[in-house]
Amino acid sequence: MTGLFWNLLLATCWVFLTGSFGVSNYFFGFLVGYLVIALIHKLVPGLHSYPKRIPRFFRFLSFFLWQLVLSNIKIAIDIVTPTWHMRPGVIKYNMSAKTDVEITLVANLISLTPGTLVLDVSEDKTALFVHAMFLGEEEQALLADLHELEQRLLKIIR
Amino acid sequence: MAKPKNISADSLILRTATLIVLPVQLVFSLFLLLRGHDQPGGGFIGGLVASGAFALYLYAYGVYALKQLLRVSPKDLLAIGLLLGLVATIPSVLVDQAFFTAQWWEISLGDNLIKLSTVLVFDIGVYLTVIGTLVTMFTAVAEAQLEES
Amino acid sequence: MMSDILISVLLLLAAVVILLASIGLLRLPDLPTRMHATTKSGVFAIALIMIAVALYFARIDITARALAIIVFTFLTAPIAAHAIGRAGYLSGVELWPNTVRDDLKDYYQEKDHNNKDAS
Amino acid sequence: MQVLMAIAIGLMFAAAFYMMLRRSIVKLVMGLIILSNAANLVIFTVAGMTRAEPPFLDETTKIASSGVADPLPQALILTAIVIAFGVLAFSVVLIHRAYEAVGTDDLDLMKDTDT
Amino acid sequence: MIGLLLAIVLTACIAPVWTHSWRLPRALLALVPATGFLYCLNWWPAVASGNPVLQTLSWMPSIGLSLSFYIDGLSLLFLLLVTGIGSFIILYASSYLKGHQDEGRFFLWLFLFMASMLGLVASDNLLALFVFWELTSFTSYMLIGFNHESEKSRKLALQGLFITVGGGLLLMTGFIMLGSLTGTYQLSEIVQISISEQSHFINAMLVFILLGAFTKSAQFPFHFWLPNAMAAPTPVSAFLHSATMVKAGVFIMARLHPTLSEQSVWSTAQLWAGAATMLLGAWLAYMATDLKKVLAYSTVMALGTLTLLLGIGSEYALIGFVSYLLAHSLYKASLFMLAGGVDHSTGTKDLLQLQGLRATMPVTFGLIIVGALSLAGLPPLFGFIGKELLLEAGLGVDGWLIVVIVVAATLVVGVALTLIVKPFLGQPVTLPRPPHELPPAMLAGPVVLLTLSVLFGLAPALAEQGLVHAAVQSIAVSEQAVKLKLWHGVNTALLLSLLSLAAGAVLAFWWLRSRRVAQQLAKWSDRIGPESFYFRLMDSIAAFATWQTGAIQNGRLGIYMIVLLLATLAPVAWVLFDSVGFPGWTFELIPTVYECAMVTLMLLATAYAVRTRSRFASIISLGAMGFSVALLFVHFSAPDLGITQVLVETLTVLLLVIVLIRVPGFARFSSNAERLRDAAVALFAGFVLSWVVLAALPVQWAPTISEYFIANSYELGKGRNIVNVILVDFRALDTLGEIFVLAIAALGVYSMMKLRKGADHGKA
Amino acid sequence: MFEWVVEIVYFLLSVSMLLAFIRLVKGPSLPDRVVALELIASIVAGMVGVHAIDTGVSAYLDIAIVLAITAFLAAIGFARFIQVRGMNDE
Amino acid sequence: MSNLVFLPILLPLLSGALCLASWRSTVWQKRITLIGSIAYCLASIELMRQTLDQGYLVLQMGNWPAPFGISLVSDVLSAIMIVLTGIVSVAAAMYSMASVPNEHIRFGYFPLLHFLLVGVSGAFLTGDIFNLFVWFEVMLLSSFGLLTLGGERSQMEGAIKYVTINLFSSAIFLTAVGLLYGMAGTLNMADLALKIPDADEDGMVNVLALLFMASFGIKAGVFPMFFWLPASYHTPLVAVSAVFAGLLTKVGVYAIYRVFSLLFIGDITFTHTLLLWLGVLTMVTGVFGAAAQFEFRRILSFHIISQIGYMILAIALFTPLALVGGVFYIMHHILVKTNLFLISGLTHQLTGTHELKQMGGLYRHRPWVAVAFVISAMSLAGLPPLSGFFAKFVVIKAGVEASAWWATAFALVVGLLTLYSMIKIWNEVFWKKAEPELEKQVTSKVLSPWMLLPVIMLAAMTVSIGIFGESLFQIAELAADQLLNRSGYINAVLGEQQ
Ligand code: NA
Ligand code: NA
User: Fold this and answer.
1) ipTM value of the model?
2) Across E15-24, E81-90, E262-271, least confident range
3) Cβ-defined contact of B99 to G20 (cutoff 8 Å)
4) Least CA distance to D56: which residue of chain F?
């Protein structure tokens, strides 16, 4: 199941890239994808069935983009104003993500959101160390935000 | 602040992300290779992208993992690439034309026409050579430094 | 015409975002905060520009490519940020004195301590 | 523009040569990088610079627009870039090994083979 | 003739085997030159009747070189001397070197030397002659350096080689000029031509040829190598001094006499050099105390005499030349063999030590008397006839010359008498080895040669009809009338001859008493003589070489690069300044703000990469430079370049980082002054290259060929990306080369990183 | 209209690039410079997109793709170095 | 169309790639190398035969018409160079069989050797100026690789200079090619010959000429740009030194011959006079450099420079005779120089050192090595009737006939000084008595026939060039004729319609 998923994903990728949406091209993309997966098949951990997750994905996307815009604006304001409003700090965030892929995706998403940046994962894989620009008093709010982001993502990929 | 000791140089995030990015890079490199005749790309560019992918893997997992991933020795890759490049020069001689004269074979697959040519073979040779080159270099340097330390 | 305006707005917005990012990079006091300014804004701006490109060409293949760029950027930018941020932190980059809290430092010290005990 | 490029190229060459005259082997490598870029830019500049007309044929008509950029120098530069990369890779490793073997990065101390 | 040469060369090649593996009697080897002698005698009738023998073998016609032989009287005389004396030398050597470990090699080189000399005197082709000429220099070098484990021996051998080869180079130039002057390299044709016109070209040519001949024939100031050639074993000295090697110079002067004797430079130079050499040789011979040195200097004297005679060029002189040559060859070969025998037998050749050998070596004593008297020019020996003709010829010229001749003759008489008196008379003394009489093989040569000396003296007609006449005819421009006679009646020449004998006897009487003065003088002349000049020259070559190498090849790459930059670009700057000028500013493409910004960024990044003290800052800055270059490529319609640049930039950074982890950072080694100098040079170079580019911009000699690629990329190359079609099809060969460059770089990196710290494997 | 917009965008991006370069020069630590380089790479990708619009040549987008999937490698490389050697070069 | 012209490039490419593919097996690499070099040699002889037969052999690669594609051209000069390359490659291959340590083979010795030949052959055969650049780079990088193979300190030091200076040369070359294309719009050398105007029409021609002169001059080791050569040539394996000595600088010389007979002949009084003095200075500085050395290979290295001077002198005189001399000189030099380096390997094998002062006794104990050395050394010094004499003779004759008195005088003096250095080696290595310990070593060592055979083969060639040189001479004359007659070349490449 996982193999098929990746294969299709890669084939799609191929079709997008070539920009020619013929059946044969898709087939060829499938072939190319197969080759690539053949190359790395030992290394890709299992993934579950994926079709259900498309609507969730779009919901998540809009949420994420909104976050992105908001925090961008927040940082922008701080940058252009002469004094610093920010209260940066490194905070430990206990995540619910378990597998490596989950952790990575969560971490990347957190990093992509302005104002937060993942510096490290604890060795027992339970917590992320997040550098946040606006920590200060909003510590709990921030952790809550992170949690929401993580949950939405996990719903898609689990 | 003193540099903390006993902290692993490996990063879980980098390692896992590499697994996601690597296939994308490889697919893209093939894509660049194959459509280079019409759009930006070609064997070099494709090969460089693929090499970048392997370099990423090297940085994330180390040199032995990379060798396991490749299965063939990078020098073999190099040799295959070069030989493919050379092979591309030869078919024309068989039909009594100058060396390197491009030979095109069109294979119809359903209603699609697939154009195969010595040019493509040559470009694939270039692609493999570039990969072989860079991977040879990276693995050689990394291995030597591993042995040293 | 509508799309022209939209494209222009997107482009200008992207330019401004990047400009802000570069100002931030220049102004902000320490490595992590600078990375906040650059990494995400870069990604954001590229996304905006690519949307503009997709709108401009209005062709499916190009839209696909623009999307691919956005996806790839989203995929790779945080990896780089994480790698640099972590490396910088590990190698002891100076944090801004006004930094309010550092859980990671405590974590590392504890680990060091444990390891010493173990050995 | 080409005038501007010509001046810039001269400065790049000067920078490259200055680096190559240093006694530190690492600077030598930096000099080589700048040098190959400068040489590539010479080809690019002298062969004529064209804005916004990349040398592709139209997808459907298979015809190039009239003011299309000269593709040949681009091919030459591409070859030169790749060659320069190979050379550079070699040189970097060479200075690394030279440093290991000789135990100094001062070029003026590497004259056993001459005198 | 070629058969003769081949036979001797073949003998040379089997000689080592002959002596070492087969262990056959060495004396048998003498049969080869003896047979050669008889073979040469074959030509006598024809040559004597005025019909030279011509043989031709093609060699390199393109440069005018042929292996052709021209055997006239002069050649034949030499051929007979070389083979004849050569036979006895071999015989002598077979005994002299018996049991020596390098005997085989000795015969090898001796036979090769003989062959070279034969080729030299028989060659019709100037170039072939030169080939043999150089071969005699080289083979004699191998012979002189026979005792090569002694450093002195090596040094002296080199001296002879250096001087004769140096002269040889001049001779070659002279020959080339002569060839282009006469339009032929064939001597048989050249001797028919007499060059009478004057020009600098001709004078230069004459000087070159003469210098070649003078060096070989040890004329002043090149005389010093010859006595030093004594380092060779005696048979070699005997051969070298009598019939071969040193006679080569005299031979070539005689050969070209018909062609060049009308040139005043030619004859005047011979006159002066000959007179000086003769006098100096005689003087040095008298001063020397080493038996072989005495003989060697007397050879120098004889060579000077021969040159002098050619310079005089009169009838008497020419006939005197041939007679003197013949006489000298006969007695000098004998004297050398005998002197060598004395050395061999007693273990010393110091005249001051040798005494009273009369009783123990009676035969040697007798032979020495004959030889020495011939040297002194006493009747009825052949030497007397030669000396008479010399005096006769000298009388024909200005007054001063005859004085010189008489003085020289006097000294020689003194020398000759000393040779008889000092070693043999008086009471026997203790010598390093108890003396014994020489074995027959060593005596055979002197006996025969000195017999001939007597015979020719008593019956000069025998010599004349046999050899002298024909030889003189080949030298002379016109028919010669003078006949050889033992008795000319009482004339001025005879009186002068008697005077020299008397005075010479006095000198011989004084010989022992003059030794302290002689040694003093020798020391003094060593310091200022031409030999010291030679050694100083050699020292200064070495010193100059060391200085030059230290100055140029100083090991400092920075200096090398400065020289390279200036050597490359200063001439370019000069041409630009001289014939191109500064171009007008062309602004067909006005740069936009954006383009300016990119260029600025590129330059700033470069500047920072240069300025920074952190190599990683430098790498990063170069990354920024690479990105701006990529943007320029993109902006000016080169997307493929842009992609490649970006990719290469990234991979370069990856590679630099991983490699440079273990290399230290930038260090500042240079002083401020050095940095300033380097910056000035670099800026100058950059300025010149800018100028070149600017000057090239408006130039368009022809339209570009690219139209073809644009027009045919799809049609013929089946691709729309023209750059790629060029890379993989139109100019695929470039790309093929390029991937091999990459592969090679990979191999280089691989081996450098992995093959290391392997102990020295011996680089053979 | 695009011409003006594009000119302005070019200008702003150029200024951004120069600002980023100033950070590259100022450092002070190696990671700071790397971050500046990463931003420059992003700006280049953006510029390439603008180029595509400016010239109407879609082929330029490929450069942006390449940048998107490879430019981050430099940062990875430096990160590796920084971990091995520390961030101060000398 | 003559596909034969590509074979000298293809064969070593193939051998190299196959050696690379069989990098695990030293035995197979050796086999491939022997077969490959012999095949190359045969192909080169056939190429020579056909070239002599037809005058020019031209191959338009990929069947693209000149000047658009890349033309490979074999004229007599090219064919001569290819044949010489073939001979050197066989000699080097044989010599390598026994002399190269297995470790070097495992780390790419043979592929690099073949690729070096590729670069050399490509440079000799190409008719395209940019393609020449590519082959130069192939050659350079392989030489870098061979130079550093083994990784010893001296190799690294030498290589740094070698690499830096040669890369500078490449950059100048590339710049010049770029300028040339910008102004003439073409890269094909025959086409360029038509399109480059006379220098008095445009001073830029001389600028280009100077840039090419500098670039090729560096590769050829011309004064004052030869520093890299003595700094590095004595550091690698002997077989490598020998190939370098025989071929590398000659590629630079060949390029000078090609370019300054085909492209830049519009202002001979400027360009060729400059070359003349460069040639003279090169031979003088080279020979004095040798006089100061006491290491076998360093002496030989400086002599390379000195003799490059003769070759440059010949092209500078630019008369038919001078060119004949130059071509003949190149032929002679390649064989002799290669052999001398190989001999230095033999003496090293026997004595364990390259330092003259520490050697000795070889004339007594190894007469055949001595004979091979004497032949080669005396040939180098120009002793007749060996090959070097004829080479020198013709150059000097040409100098005399061109009234280039000073140049000729220097050439003569340099000849004498060459003798001086050769005798120095002879005295120290062969004539001098060996120390007892060394003597024991010298007498006990066994030389592999793989190492002796090429030395004897090359020595025999040197002798036979002297004895049977006429036909070679005629070939050199043909080559010179073609060099002076550039319309033949142009027509052969571009077709008669031009
Ligand atoms: Na603020
Ligand atoms: Na132009």
Assistant:
1) 0.92
2) E15-24
3) no
4) F59
- Cβ contacts from B onto G, under 8 A: 48
Q: Which residues contact B7 (CB under 8 A, 6 or more apart)?
A: C90, C108, C111
Query: Could you give the 3-state DSSP secondary structure of residue F27?
Result: coil
Q: Which of A104, A95, A93, A94 lies closest to A157 in space, CA to CA?
A: A104
CA G168/CA G177 separation, integer angstroms = 14
Report, as an integer, the average pLDDT of B131-136.
94
Q: Summarize the confidence of residues E642-652 as an average pLDDT.
A: 92
E604 in F contact zone (CB under 8 Å): yes
Reported for E546-550, long-range contacts at CB under 8 A and 24+ positions apart, including other chains, are E546/G292, E548/G285, E548/G288, E548/G289, E548/G292, E549/D115, E549/G288, E549/G289, E549/G292, E549/G293, E550/D115, E550/G292
Classify E103 as helix, strand or coil. Answer: helix
Q: From the CB coordinates, do chains E and B have 3 or more pairs under 8 Å? A: yes
Residues 6+ apart with CB under 8 A from E38: none
CA distance E725 to C46: 31
Mean pLDDT computed over every residue of chain G: 92
CB G385 within 8 A of CB E131: yes
Measured between beta carbons, which residues in chain A are less than 8 angstroms from residue B56? none
- Which of E724, B38, G346 has its CA nearest to residue D71? E724
Specify whether the CB–CB gap between E470 and E376 falls below 8 A: no
Using a CB-CB distance cutoff of 8 angstroms, which residues of chain A are in contact with residue B11? 120-121
pLDDT reported for residue B11:
80
| Residue B94: Cβ-neighbour burial (10 angstroms; 0-12, 13-18, 19+) | exposed
Q: Which of G83, G85, G192 is nearest to G135 (CA)?
A: G85
Q: Using CA atoms, how far apart are residues G219 and G242, in angstroms rounded to an integer?
A: 16
Mutate to test the interface with C, among B3, B7, B24 (most CBs of C within 10 A): B7
B24 chain-A contacts, CB cut-off 8 A: 13
Bigger pLDDT: A55 vs A64: A64
Q: What length is written for chain D?
A: 115
Residues of chain B numbered 2-31 and touching chain E (CB < 8 Å): none
d(CA G181, CA D72): 9
Tokens of B37: 């005749």
Can you give the pLDDT at residue G19? 94
Pick from D34, D37, D42: nearest CA to D17:
D34
* Pairing status of strand E53-55 against strand E69-71: antiparallel
Spatial strand order in the sheet of A89-94: A89-94, A127-132, A116-121
Mutation test of the interface with chain E: which of B63, B101, B126, B149, choosing the one with the most E Cβ atoms within 10 A?
A: B126
Q: Report the DSSP beta bridge partners of residue B106.
A: B115
Q: How far is CA E16 from the centre of its chain?
A: 27
In DSSP terms, A118 is beta-bridged to A130
> Which pLDDT belongs to residue G496?
66
What is the per-residue pLDDT across A17-32, written as a single tens digit (0 to 9) for each?
777 766 667 777 777 7
Each residue's pLDDT tens digit, C15-37: 999 999 999 999 988 898 898 88
Ligand with smallest separation from the Cα of A77? 1
| Token pair belonging to E145 | 């350096």
**Weakest-pLDDT range from A60-74, F33-47, G251-265:** A60-74
Token couple for D115: 């005198």
Contact yes or no for B78 and E754 at CB 8 A: no
Chain E residues close to B40, C-beta within 8 Å: 639-640, 643, 721
Q: Which of A70-79, G178-187, G217-226 has the lowest mean pLDDT?
A: A70-79
- pTM, entire model: 0.92
* Model confidence at G267: pLDDT above 60: yes
Lowest-confidence segment of D8-12, E406-410, E463-467 by average pLDDT? E463-467
